[in-house]
Design goal:
single chain, alpha+beta, Aminopeptidase, seven-stranded mixed beta sheet, 7 strands, 30% helix
């Protein structure tokens, strides 16, 4: 039987590489930023023969009341064995244990997986698009003035940021807020706070 255990940063980088092979587009610095934010927020499913990672995912705790599941992927040769489902349920339960009762968990998902998420107690919340830059848009960005977050008045920035997130977010140690852009279309789902025990 495979073993579910905490993930190292090197293993997280392997997950990001697999995501790239799938055509996903995580931000260039996402792995490092989320690792600094929550080092307990990554679980690996390792093969029982040599403990090598064959699947993994993130369970980021942003606050007592909000967590987020993402970067869930199984290496291609190990799909179809039920290991991904086992890891997905374990991730959800571990994240719930790390949050206050009634907390909300969010996730981004592809449309085809929404019925699977529903079996885990999640429901669609909104739809959104992510965009990627072109040579022309990169030129436009180069003409904008980007400001280091630490130079701004936190009294003004944090309340504004809170209107776009379910809880007050904190920046990872030594990080700067960045603009992330992509090209995939997703459905956002959430496990609503106070919901009944999710089915499997």
């Amino acid at each position: 039987m495979p073993n579910i255990r905490p993930m190292s940063f090197a293993e997280l980088r392997q997950l990001v590489a697999w995501a790239g092979d799938e055509g996903w587009n995580p931000g260039l610095n996402d792995a490092r930023l989320f690792w600094e934010l929550d080092r307990e927020g990554f679980l690996a499913l390792a093969a029982d023969d040599d403990d090598s990672v064959v699947a993994g995912g993130a369970i980021i705790r942003h606050s007592d009341t909000f967590g987020f599941m993402g970067l869930f992927i199984v290496d291609r040769p190990y799909r179809g064995r039920g290991w991904g489902r086992q890891l997905w349920v374990t991730r959800r339960e571990r994240l719930l244990e790390r949050l206050s009762p009634g907390a909300t968990i969010g996730l981004d998902g592809v449309d085809a997986m929404v019925p699977f998420y529903a079996k885990g107690g999640f429901q669609p919340f909104t739809r959104h698009r992510r965009f990627q830059t072109t040579p022309e848009s990169k030129l436009a960005f180069a003409q904008r003035k980007l400001v280091d977050e630490t130079t701004l008045d936190a009294v003004l920035v944090r309340p504004l940021d809170a209107t776009f997130a379910p809880s007050m977010r904190r920046s990872p140690r030594g990080s700067r807020r960045t603009i992330a852009m992509g090209s995939r279309r997703h459905a956002s789902c959430s496990f609503p706070g106070g919901a009944s025990n999710p089915t499997r």
